[in-house]
Design brief:
Helices cover about 30% and strands about 40% of the residues. The chain is of the alpha+beta class. A hairpin with a 5-residue loop joins β2 (about 20-25) and β3 (about 30-35). The mean pLDDT is about 95.
């Protein structure tokens, strides 16, 4: 097992569209984990969630989160990003742009615009995760 270089980390995070597993803290202190589609803005992780979801309610109350992204095929790799989130206040055009960019990563360029439009609606949050600590490992089975 070895640490990824910063360049390897960015390729890992933005190459293959892997679902991130977002951990948030419930009001009673229990953890909650949910999958998210994401993109990156420099070092910041950008994702969306609805205000009515458990993770949406949790991040409004407590901005501390952890995101795990992993490659489940040998030789295995993963990144764990700890940090704090903020609910962005984008313009409608910025919101649609990010929603479309995220959707295109997972659904392809052809379907990205329709999924982006579907997801950039009232009640959805555009969330920005600023890392405070990152663990990035490759070759776990080596």
């Amino acid at each position: 097992m070895a640490n990824m270089t910063p360049e390897e980390y960015h390729r890992f995070m933005l190459g293959t569209a892997r679902t991130g597993k977002l951990a948030t803290v419930r009001e009673d202190g229990r953890p909650h984990i949910a999958p998210v589609w994401f993109h990156m803005d420099g070092e910041v992780i950008v994702f969306m969630t609805n205000e009515t979801t458990v993770k949406g309610r949790n991040i409004r109350r407590d901005p501390r989160v952890s995101l795990c992204v992993d490659d489940e095929k040998p030789p295995f790799a993963f990144a764990i990003i700890e940090g704090t989130v903020e609910i962005a206040q984008p313009t409608p055009a910025e919101f649609l742009d990010w929603s479309t960019r995220i959707a295109a990563r997972y659904m392809g360029a052809e379907l990205g615009p329709s999924y982006g439009k579907r997801n950039a609606v009232e009640g959805e949050y555009l969330v920005r995760l600023t890392p405070t600590h990152v663990i990035r490992q490759k070759g776990v089975s080596n």
